[in-house]
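Lab meeting minutes (informal)
Scribe: AK
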Amino acid sequence: MSFIREVNSKCDSFEHLIIKHPCLSRDAHFNYGRIHLPVSPACNIHCKFCTRGLNKTENKPGNARKVLTPEEAVDVLDKALELCPEITVVGIAGPGDTLATDHALRTFELIHKKYPDLIKCLSTNGLLLKEYAEKIVSVGVKTVTVTVNAVDVDILEKICSYVRYNGKYMVGKEAASWLILAQLAGIRKISEMGVVVKVNTVLVPGINDFHVEKIAKVTKKAGASIINLIPLIPQGAMKDIAPPSCIELNKARENVEKHLQVFRHCTHCRADACGIPGKGYDISSLLYDNFQLEETFSHG
């Protein structure tokens, strides 16, 4: 059964999401646009490969020119739609976690009122996904991406440094266990509510490369529909780990594809990316010419 038929067996109304979502469909990747609105200023976990920041040059997740207010984000979207009418998806993927503050949900609420037909897509580490599931659906979000780097405590402990939840600071196996349970519970709940769930997994050679098939199997059982393996960008505490080779990446994709459809066209998008990703150009610099570049960022 193809991915589209599998999703449609859950809900036929999702067909248009797959066809027009450049992060779910190969064809859409080359024909439709997306915008990432950088409205989330803080994160509630820390992954050892993550270095977030505010800049104009680093082409990788977690980076943006500035953190927008929800109201500024609507203005930026207005301008983006004029410049790139092919945009079908409004995503929020940082620079921090979308559920660590209420900024992303407030932004989606404003956008859904003005542009109800645009696909809304939220990316999260999943720590708070279950408890915000109803709110996420109420502001029009139809697709959610959850970054799941391990479903085994001993492996995730090597990737995630700490978790902060309701004022509690957790490290080690406690943090890893808490995060895994929260992610799977969140995926289960949000998928049961009719939201399409994609899993992102950062492929870290020697740490979770042998584990990705289990991630796919477990997250599919929880309700995920598609997975994207992201090659490690050596940075932070993992700056000395070499990224996976093409051979290693393809082998990992073959393993996870036994359980989930694999999206193969990820481009390591910034948190303020805008344009048609498959056509290799980005118009985000045109959207921020009236904004001053910020020099501080909350890593809390």
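Next up, CB showed the second protein from the same session:
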Amino acid sequence: MWNLPNGLTLLRIALIPVFVVIFYLPTPWARPVCALVFTLAGLTDWLDGWLARRLGQTSPLGAFLDPVADKLMVAVALVLLVQADPSMWLALPAAVIIGREITVSALREWMAELGARAQVAVSMAGKLKTTAQMVAIVLLVLGGPVLGQPVRGMGYVLLYIAAALTLWSMFLYLRVAWPLLTAGPRGAADDR
């Protein structure tokens, strides 16, 4: 249960408060360091999965924590970015991305209860979405020019691409789950 991949996932979760504190520091180096922390967290996301498969160290704890850590880091980063720049142009894709994560997480949990979780496994659209949103967040956290090049505009473009891919991947998940969602009563109590 306690292995290197799970340790990297826990490190990613531990980096969230570090990210928040650095984001609000009133120093010129805060944003670049914050972007570095987010990049490090993104790299641990890739590395922990690769190591878990390579070393044969997959575990139920890792399978649970990995997507939770990803969603927490992205949601916190998007909320901070919207708070720092409260515009509709940033809030809209942030709301789409966070809303999709909540919807797909609930869908996966429900499908797991039915024993059909494998039907809503991560798709290529989901992986492309994750890459676009991670790069977008790093660029938006940086905000200002990097090596004389404006990065904020590219961050917005990538965030909108990520939001579009977010909607597309959610549609793919819902399409797979739709027959079960519309199958009628299953005899189990619900939360409505």
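CB comment: Residues 152-181 form the longest helix (30 residues).
No objections, moving on.
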